[in-house]
Amino acid sequence: VQLVESGGGLVQPGASLRLSCAASGFTFSSYTMSWYRQAPGKERELVAVIDSPGDITNYADSTKGRFTISRDNAKNTVYLQMNSLKPEDTAVYYCHAQRGWARYWGQGTQVTVSS
Fold it and tell me: 86-97: per-residue pLDDT in tens?
């Protein structure tokens, strides 16, 4: 099982980034996919979640209206479009897959928002 995140980087406040998470080794289309983030000295928190068919999404209050989660089950990939980035969005972003008791994590990608 592999979840490989990409797309992180250093951007200025107000900029956009699109994170991708490529999955392999499991039936991607059957899993709920999520993005989490963890800032230095803070606990890991849920950013956004999308159900297996991609019909239902949910977001943390801090990201509603700025972030969009989506998935392409044909490509085994989940995305996180992040707009209007703020310094407080700085964190390592992790991809997460869940189905029942099965849970998988990616290695994370760093997002830094700074002027």
Answer: 999 999 999 999
Dist CA 115 CA 110 (whole Å)? 16
pLDDT tens digits, one per residue of 38-57: 999 999 999 999 999 999 99
Contact residues for 110 (Cβ-Cβ < 8 A; gap 6+): 8, 9, 91, 92, 93
Do residues 45 and 59 touch, judged by C-beta distance below 8 A? Answer: no
How far, rounded to the nearest angstrom, does the alpha carbon of residue 20 sit from its chain's CA centroid?
Answer: 7
Distance CA 57, CA 91 (A): 21
